[in-house]
Design a protein that fits this description.
mainly alpha; elongated
């Protein structure tokens, strides 16, 4: 049985993946020599999590069904914004208090993975 993906979801997946590539390239080229070692480390971590969770978002969009699939997609999208977004901001010199946001993004990633696991489990029943 084939599932169609809505236009908004498809656009979200595309933007998540494309922005991960663009921000990775921006960090590697435009920010070379601008960021200190800590900033470069934060940027690299943000891009790593951004890329992996853009892929997880695509997987959730393609495989997710019902409520748990929607939760997985929303959680992965929120995690990218909160986790990676706060690390990008910190790398660029945002105030330290922005780091308070990062764990909420990590929690969103965990919720996304649990919801994706749930939707995959229910697909086989």
């Amino acid at each position: 049985m084939r599932q169609t993906i809505g236009t908004r979801i498809a656009l979200l997946v595309g933007v998540a993946g494309a922005s991960a590539v663009l921000l990775g390239a921006f960090g590697a080229h435009a920010l070379r020599g601008v960021l200190d070692a800590r900033g470069s480390e934060l940027w690299h971590t943000a891009v790593d999590y951004h890329v992996w969770h853009a892929l997880a978002l695509a997987m959730a969009a393609g495989l997710g069904r019902g409520r748990s699939g929607r939760i997985a997609m929303g959680a992965f999208a929120a995690g990218i914004v909160l986790f990676s977004g706060s690390l990008y901001a910190l790398a660029l010199g945002a105030p330290r208090w922005v780091g308070i946001i990062t764990p909420f993004g990590g929690l969103a990633f965990v919720i996304g993975w649990l919801a994706l696991g749930w939707t995959l489990r229910t697909r086989n029943e």
